[in-house]
Amino acid sequence: MAKPTFSPFSQAVVGAMRKLYPEKLADSSFDNTGLLLEAPYRPGHLQNSALLTVDLTRAVADEAIARKDSIIIAYHPIIFRPLKALTQSNTQQSTLLRLAQEGVSVYSPHTALDAAENGLNDFLVTCLTAEKPTADGNSTGLSKVHHDSSVLTPVKDAPQGFESAGYGRIVRFHTPQTLGDIIARITFQLKLSCVSVATPQSIPTEKRNQIKISSVGICAGSGSMLNGLDVDLLFTGELSHHEALAAIEKGKCVITTFHSNSERRFLEARLLDQLNAATKEEVEELGKKGQWEESLTKDFTIAASKTDRDPFVVAMN
């Protein structure tokens, strides 16, 4: 067997991600997905382990290096625009140089993960519609909501098996839901203490939670694609001041969670299990093809970053 130049475990993780969320699903008009850093393979130097994160910050890189991870799956691409140089003065470039030196590769799925069926935006649909357990864990508070869900912008020429993929989602409830119940579902499912809410100024604050919602536009991260959508509620990570004003002036409501909070919970709640199962299959396939070194264990670990977090927090005196 030829000596591998790319960590066999990292190769298995990348193969698993590409099967779960093919890069062809990404919005190539602006996005940069795929294997962004292919670090040289140093046998025995790193563990068969991967770290999931939304943002690849210096703190996350420190965490991966300390854990001796072979690869980082960073939802947001750390390389987003063409690079003319790699220098220590730029913090992101410095992080890339350090990871390359340590042998840690980087893969980004970004909008491919958004678009796929059972991906990020479909997860946000479940945040609006899933059952909400009560504190005792034995009974249920808010019951499952019957609804219809559709894709806002389908992916053109999607690969076989992913024909239903697309960007954004529209949810239509069979029975109108109150805004208060929707907020309770979102904060529970995303494990947030609060969200930002905008409502039409003609509605008194004390009546805000009783607003009836029949339809919701959903977009993880930045929700600009929801502008002008004929729905009662926009649910996204962030919306600009003027976009939010335009929405409430038209009688709509807005819920934002901070950009990456609409994405981060998905890593632990869904992607961890998905990637563990898919990577196990890839490892077995590499073994059958003779592309897995006999001296390597087939055991591995995949974890969500403990240091990754949204840069914004709500601070109160």
UniProtKB/TrEMBL annotation:
UniProt keyword Repressor, yes or no: no
Gene3D superfamilies: NIF3 (NGG1p interacting factor 3)-like (3.40.1390.30)
Keywords: Metal-binding
Residues that coordinate or bind a divalent metal cation: H76, D114, H259, E263
Keyword Phosphoprotein: no
Pfam families reported in the protein's UniProt record: DUF34_NIF3
CC per GO annotation: mitochondrion
GO function term, MF aspect, one: metal ion binding
Record-linked NCBIfam families: YbgI_SA1388
Family stated for the protein in its record: Belongs to the GTP cyclohydrolase I type 2/NIF3 family.
Protein name: Protein NIF3-like protein
Organism (species): Lachnellula occidentalis
Lineage: Eukaryota, Fungi, Dikarya, Ascomycota, Pezizomycotina
Gene designation: SPCC126.12
